[in-house]
Amino acid sequence: MNHHIAKSTLASLVVVSLGLVMIAVGCSSSPATAQPAAAAQPAAKSGAPVVWKWATGTSENSVKGDMQKTWKKVIEEKTKGQVQVEIYWEGALGAEQKANEAVLQKAVQMGVASTSNAAAIVPRWSAIDMPFLISDGYTGLRKFMDASPGLKELEAESEQKGLKVMGYITQGFRHLFTTKKQVKVPADAKGLKIRSTPSPIEAAYISAIGSNPSVVDWSEIYLALKQGTVDGYNVAYASVNDYKHTDALKYVCEYSIVPILNVVTMNLEHYKSLSPELKKAIDEAYRDGTMQVLDIDVKSDGVHKATLEQAGITVYKPADAEMKQFNDIVQPVYEKNVNIAPKDWVDKVRTSLK
């Protein structure tokens, strides 16, 4: 009896199972109609913006960070939303020289580096660090950024190395801050120990004005100033405030010896692969982004200067005759670095500033 029930039950289960399979087949889509539905997802995303990663060592909450956000906005507006820029702050994907290397390796689409660090790949960028190359402060810098043939030559050399220059970020000028005495003319700087970066050009112009260059890592500079290991350094107003060095300094000679310039780059092959529309947008962003950032820099520089004066640092701006002394005394730096800054190139730059 039990054996008969088991066989009957098994037969019923088979019938039910077959029925369920038939129902399922009848209700589902066939493979031929299901495949296009799955393939439709990429098509729906075809209008989504392309993401460009931007490697930088900058802190997001800084003036330079605001400048990079301005650049991001300009690029996204010029490309009409076809490009979305994602900034990776504080070296998350590489900073300065490593950021440019990442661009060359196509690991990121954009990088930014100071001219000193850009010189590791394109040595001629060191020419921007020549003393008093850019005269007349921000007025001269604006002319240089806008139309200098000398700048175009450096951009062309960058392309030979595989880097397309998208534009620039300025950060003021280097002025001579000191702890012991006010410098007004080169004679006042004689014998002072002045901090230098590893740049041979910076060391050369520090020596030219009669001071002794001393290479000190930036992370150690505050203590070096406080302890008297060095008597000063050449930095922008913003750097003193941003890194809270005000209590270690007493004076500044506002002689604008070198502009602080950062180069925004893209892989040249990547640029060439863009559509004509996107190339045009990037080319237009070059000037708009650079000039908007320069406006931010000018405003920020004035604020930082006023903050330092309120903190008790005495600012001295040399008169024309005093500036001539500085200009004359650094001429040997040009004579010794003609490979970096040839005379015809220097003449082109200075002519464009008139």
What is the CATH topology assignment? D-Maltodextrin-Binding Protein, domain 2
Q: End-to-end distance, in Å?
A: 115 Å
Radius of gyration, in Å, reads 30 Å
CATH architecture classification name: 3-Layer(aba) Sandwich
Shape: globular
**Highest-level CATH class:** Alpha Beta
User: How many beta-strand runs?
Assistant: 9
Strand content bin: 15-25%
In round numbers, the mean pLDDT is 88
Largest sheet: 9 strands, mixed
Helix content: 40-55%
- Whole-number total of structural domains: 1
Regions with pLDDT < 50 over 5+ consecutive residues?
Answer: 1-45
The computed structural class is alpha/beta
Fold and architecture overview:
This protein has 15 helices and nine strands. The chain is of the alpha/beta class and 354 residues long. The protein has one domain: Bacterial extracellular solute-binding protein, family 7 (D-Maltodextrin-Binding Protein, domain 2), CATH 3.40.190.170. Strands 1, 2, 3, 4, 5, 6, 7, 8 and 9 form a nine-stranded mixed β-sheet that branches. Helix 6 runs antiparallel to helix 12. The radius of gyration is 30 Å and the shape is globular. The termini are far apart. The N terminus is likely disordered.
